[in-house]
């Protein structure tokens, strides 16, 4: 059936300014790392994309290597864009990245200009796009001068292949350096994409300060710690969960007793707030306005609905925050 987007979609979502830029991002964005690859069911991915857009999620995050196999998430997304979202391209923020192994030989990985430029050209082809909204360096490359990797980001903007640039998985010091280089080139850094969740708070130790001082946005990936910060593992590992799948990046041995003890207590606090644990975990990431967008993944439509409903209660009392800290530090 032809897709027509929900006319009320912009009344549901909250949009946050990305640093000092002109770009607003939805408080919740959808990533296509899992569940949109060649090994996954096309119609399930398509239903999730439609539901996300209907709920006001305008931002879709990809990378050259998402699948499996690598490249297949961009291909699948490209098919969905062509069949369902063509009329909505100007209402969408589409990002992709290069930085991990993509093709064999010395030019298919890391951060050289040779790799970054070729990779974006391939990504655009797979998605059937003329440009992406955000192009990222997916990880810092210890063997390539930062000037070269940032030079590649600057170049794609000048060529009209990307509107904005981002970096992902860079430390606070590497970020400060990247900001300087990009400012000198005249292509300011829009956004950083770090991992961040209640179980992974490394960005509070320096990176958030660098981003704030320089007016740069941030989009937190794995805010649900790949599903650990939901109630799904409390009764064991369900068959259809990421930890049970051979292609999932969450392994059964990461679902430990120690983590589950914390999750159980967090689940009680969420219930007292009238939220699912997933909703509380997303609200927590967004709690102080430092994170522009929480970048979720999903394996089914209902999860996207559950997660967007986090927006109904983003407020935490001082007491709730203290109790959460106590659990996390225990
Ligand atoms: P999350 O931490 O949000 O985990 C998503 C998983 O949690 C889902 O696939 C699902 O797993 C489960 N889940 C989601 N919502 C619910 C819910 N309401 N109730 C119960 N379970 C739920 O994020 P991801 O790990 O998927 O990462 C999100 C995105 O971040 C990626 O798609 C990618 O775009 C980006 N990313 C970026 C990286 C980088 O280096 N820049 C690295 C990793 C991710 P299940 O299958 O068990 O149902």
Describe the structure concisely.
This protein is an alpha/beta fold.
What does this structure look like?
Belongs to the shaker potassium channel beta subunit family. InterPro entries: K_chnl_volt-dep_bsu_KCNAB-rel (IPR005399), NAD(P)_OxRdtase_dom_sf (IPR036812), NADP_OxRdtase_dom (IPR023210). It is a single chain. With 330 residues, the protein is an alpha/beta fold. It has a single domain (9-228, 285-312), classed as NADP-dependent oxidoreductase domain (TIM Barrel, Alpha-Beta Barrel), CATH 3.20.20.100. 38% of the residues lie in helices and 14% in strands. The chain contains eleven helices and ten strands. It has helices at residues 9-12, 42-54, 72-85, 113-127, 146-158, 172-185, 207-213, 257-272, 277-285, 301-308, 318-329; strands spanning 15-17, 24-26, 28-31, 59-61, 93-98, 132-137, 162-168, 189-193, 217-221, 293-296. The strands form two sheets. It has an eight-stranded parallel barrel, surrounded by five helices. A two-stranded antiparallel ribbon has the order 1-2. Strand 6 (132-137), helix 5 and strand 7 (162-168) form a beta-alpha-beta unit. Helix 6 (172-185) runs parallel beside helix 7. The chain is globular. The mean pLDDT is 97. Residues 31-35, 61, 138, 168-169, 193, 221-227, 230, 232, 241-242, 278, 295-299, 303, 306-307 line the site of NADPH dihydro-nicotinamide-adenine-dinucleotide phosphate. NADPH dihydro-nicotinamide-adenine-dinucleotide phosphate binds next to strand 10 and helix 10.
């Amino acid at each position: 059936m032809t897709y027509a987007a929900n006319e009320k979609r912009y009344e549901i979502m909250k949009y946050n300014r990305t640093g000092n830029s002109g770009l607003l991002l939805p408080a919740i964005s959808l990533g296509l790392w899992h569940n949109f690859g060649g090994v996954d069911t096309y119609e399930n991915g398509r239903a999730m994309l439609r539901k996300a857009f209907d709920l006001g999620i305008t931002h879709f995050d990809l990378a050259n290597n998402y699948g499996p196999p690598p490249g297949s998430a961009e291909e699948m997304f490209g098919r969905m864009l062509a069949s369902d979202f063509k009329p909505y391209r100007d209402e969408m923020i589409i990002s992709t990245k290069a930085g991990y192994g993509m093709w064999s030989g010395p030019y298919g990985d890391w951060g050289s200009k040779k790799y970054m430029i070729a990779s974006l050209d391939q990504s655009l082809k797979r998605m059937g796009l003329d440009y992406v909204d955000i192009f990222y360096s997916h990880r810092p490359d210890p063997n390539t001068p930062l000037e070269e990797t940032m030079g590649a980001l600057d170049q794609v903007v000048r060529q009209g292949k990307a509107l904005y640039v981002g970096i992902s998985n860079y430390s606070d010091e590497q970020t400060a350096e990247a900001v300087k280089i990009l400012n000198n080139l005249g292509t300011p850094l829009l956004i950083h994409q770090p991992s961040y969740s209640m179980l992974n708070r490394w960005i509070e130790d320096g990176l958030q300060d660098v981003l704030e001082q320089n007016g740069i946005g941030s989009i937190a990936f794995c805010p649900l710690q790949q599903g650990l910060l939901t109630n799904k593992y409390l009764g064991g590992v369900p068959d259809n969960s990421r930890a049970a799948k051979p292609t999932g990046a969450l392994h059964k041995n990461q679902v430990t007793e120690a983590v589950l003890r914390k999750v159980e207590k967090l689940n009680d606090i969420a219930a007292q707030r009238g939220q699912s644990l997933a909703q509380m975990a997303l609200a927590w990431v967004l709690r102080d306005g430092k994170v522009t967008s929480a970048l979720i993944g999903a394996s089914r439509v209902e999860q996207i609905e559950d997660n967007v409903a986090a927006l109904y209660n983003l407020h935490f009392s001082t007491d709730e925050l203290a109790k959460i800290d106590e659990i996390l530090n225990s």
